[in-house]
Amino acid sequence: MRSRRLIIVLVLALVSGLLAGWLALRLLSNAGDSRIPTASAPSAEIVVAARDLPLGRVLTAEDVKLLGWPGNSVPENAATTVEEVLGRGVITPVTMNEPLLSGKMAVKEAGGGLPIVITEGMRAVSVRVNEVIQVAGFVMPGTHVDVFVTIDPPEGRSGGPVTKLVLENVTVLTANQIVQTGPNGEPVTATVVTMLVTPEDAEKLIYAATKGQIQLGLRNTLDLDTVTTEGVQVRDLIPGAPRPAPRRTVPTTRRSNTGIEIYRGPELEVENVEGGF
Question: What is the reported pTM?
Answer without folding.
Answer: 0.56
